[in-house]
């Protein structure tokens, strides 16, 4: 209330919202009722996996669902977006060299992760470790295959039989 009185916007960010109980989601709904005659006192942003959408479709979530003003679903990243995403993360971490991932490794990374950022991060990390361990300077298909083999949730769409 004090922050709102001082003219500040109060935002509650909830990550992994699909794991919240119905009681917790109801508490969030009640929080969303906080307002003055002029404006809402709190904005609430829920982040979650696709299971959150399923949970919000349940009959007991009708009142919360009615309060959702904006809904956005991230689509899987394309191969080009995967490369740009990795480059951004590497630069943000302080890397200033040339490309670390060969094109064939990027293609395999995108297909094996389905373009999901969380899985991209995990596979890229494992592939970078495998590359470092082998004494190479760039991630190739071999290192990416090792990362995929070590990650149960990765799609093994191109495994040789």
TrEMBL record:
<dbReference type="GO" id="GO:0016887">
    <property type="term" value="F:ATP hydrolysis activity"/>
</dbReference>
<dbReference type="Pfam" id="PF13401">
    <property type="entry name" value="AAA_22"/>
</dbReference>
<feature type="domain" description="ORC1/DEAH AAA+ ATPase">
    <location>
        <begin position="3"/>
        <end position="55"/>
    </location>
</feature>
<dbReference type="InterPro" id="IPR052026">
    <property type="entry name" value="ExeA_AAA_ATPase_DNA-bind"/>
</dbReference>
<protein>
    <submittedName>
        <fullName>Putative Type II secretory pathway, component ExeA</fullName>
    </submittedName>
</protein>
<dbReference type="InterPro" id="IPR027417">
    <property type="entry name" value="P-loop_NTPase"/>
</dbReference>
<dbReference type="InterPro" id="IPR049945">
    <property type="entry name" value="AAA_22"/>
</dbReference>
């Amino acid at each position: 209330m004090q922050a709102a009185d001082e003219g500040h916007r109060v935002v509650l960010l909830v990550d992994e919202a699909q794991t919240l109980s119905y009681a917790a989601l109801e508490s969030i709904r009640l929080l969303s009722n906080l307002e003055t005659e002029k404006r809402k006192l709190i904005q609430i942003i829920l982040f979650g996996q696709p299971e959150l959408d399923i949970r919000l479709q349940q009959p007991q979530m009708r009142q919360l669902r009615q309060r959702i003003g904006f809904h956005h679903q991230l689509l899987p990243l394309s191969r080009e977006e995967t490369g740009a995403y990795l480059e951004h993360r590497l630069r943000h971490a302080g890397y200033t060299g040339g490309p670390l991932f060969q094109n064939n490794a990027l293609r395999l990374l995108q297909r094996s992760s389905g373009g999901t950022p969380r899985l991209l991060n995990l596979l890229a990390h494992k592939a970078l470790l495998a590359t470092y361990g082998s004494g190479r300077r760039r991630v190739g298909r071999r290192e990416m295959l090792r990362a995929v083999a070590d990650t149960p949730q990765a799609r093994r769409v191109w495994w040789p039989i």
